[in-house]
Design goal:
Largest sheet: 7 strands, mixed
Number of helices: 12
Number of strands: 14
Distance between the termini: 42 Å
Structural class: alpha/beta
Strand content: 15-25%
Strand order of the largest sheet: 7-6-8-9-10-13-14
Helix content: 40-55%
């Protein structure tokens, strides 16, 4: 362990915990994430971040003297697997669960953890309906789709395009976001939605779909699905010599997009919370420096960082109210105000949604870098 890394762990632990002299017990916190499957890189980064933060807590003496143990379950980015994983966590004496990444995958775990009375903090699940169910133990550190939808409408209108195609993948996340954008654009003067349809995820050939969409002569394409399909679309549009610009939703915020697109991602836009490299909080920069030192690179997207935020607010709640799930939920709703997270200030409203606007517009440059558009 390097000197810088040791200093970081000690400083982080002192910052989060203070000193406590309670009898030592193990506090178990669950992590539900995709360690296998299509989005395994997101889950693997989530696990690294949460475990690194837990190491910092334990190095500094634990939460009020109690050590933290992370209980990880792989949801494989599949709802059925997520439900089984949530059942295992519900019987593992965890006081809270972090995760997961996809909205449909999170939804499959929601009722199981809620019925067990366990706090759940989703990290990449932006579907509106997740927090419209009135589950008092459910929270999320990511924004939700109506926030992103409003930002997408503003972006498309500001760009000045009038003929717009909207493409989704029929998942809970992508269809919900597409519907939000469609509803917003219907009130934009002079804008016409010339195409609204879905693709089938994991297909290798979208040429027929692209040909149909091209025949509608859109000036820009809004894609609300995930980065593997966005990369395939970009590559096949280049092969067709179709140069219509494309804007993606936040599920296309992953550096693998550039590699999968085969050199054709330049000029691609997407909406997202700030990338790890753009975080401007002191705690965020310090943590990511330690993460990069340990693993040799930054996380591939912002979503694993939001898992770190979930861990930190759970620690803060336990520090204030003890390791009881009901007390944690009450504190997150009523006691957590202006907490300085890795990604910025954190507080939750009565539905469990994170308060504040977190979205920015990014563009892929000629080097394959994701550049925040600040104007």
């Amino acid at each position: 362990m390097t000197k810088f890394y040791r200093i970081f762990l000690l400083a982080l632990g002192c910052l989060l915990l203070g000193s406590g002299l309670a009898a030592a017990e193990t506090i178990k916190i669950g992590l539900l994430c995709p360690l296998t499957g299509a989005y395994a890189n997101e889950g693997q980064d989530m696990q690294r971040i949460v475990e690194l933060l837990a190491d910092g807590v334990n190095t500094a003496g634990g939460i009020n003297g109690n050590q933290v143990e992370i209980i990880t379950q792989d949801d494989a980015s599949e709802p059925r697997t997520s439900a089984l994983a949530a059942q295992r966590l519900a019987t593992s004496d965890v006081v809270a669960v972090i995760g997961t990444y996809g909205s449909a995958v999170t939804e499959a775990s929601q009722n199981i953890l809620a019925e067990a009375g366990i706090v759940q903090i989703a990290t990449g699940s932006t579907s509106i309906r997740l927090t419209e169910k009135g589950i008092p133990t459910f929270f999320r550190t990511c924004p939700r789709d109506d926030d992103q939808g409003a930002m997408a409408v503003k972006t498309l209108v500001t760009m000045g395009h009038k003929r717009i195609a909207i493409l989704h993948d029929n998942s809970a996340y992508a269809r919900g976001l597409a519907d939000e954008i469609k509803a917003g654009l219907e009130h934009a003067p002079g804008v016409e939605i010339v195409f609204f349809d879905a693709l089938r995820p994991n297909e290798r050939d979208y040429n027929a779909l692209l040909t149909t969409m091209k025949s509608k002569d859109p000036e820009i394409i809004m894609f609300t699905g995930y980065y593997p399909e966005a990369a395939t679309l970009l590559r096949q549009m280049a092969e067709m010599k179709w140069q219509a610009p494309m804007v993606g939703g936040d599920a296309t915020n992953n550096r693998d997009l550039v590699k999968l697109a085969g050199g054709h991602a330049t000029g691609y836009y997407f909406l997202s919370p700030a990338m790890p490299s753009d975080l401007n909080t002191e705690s965020g920069r310090a943590f990511l420096a330690a993460y990069q030192e340990k693993y040799g690179s930054l996380p591939s997207s912002i979503w694993p960082v939001l898992a770190g935020d979930a861990f930190n607010v759970i620690v803060e709640a336990i520090k204030a109210k003890g390791a009881d799930s009901a007390a944690i939920a009450d504190y997150l709703h009523n006691g957590l105000k202006g907490f300085s997270g890795l990604s910025g200030e954190i507080a939750f409203n009565e539905k469990g949604d994170r308060v504040g606007n977190l979205y920015y517009l990014y563009k892929v440059d000629e080097k394959g870098e994701f550049v925040m558009q600040r104007d």
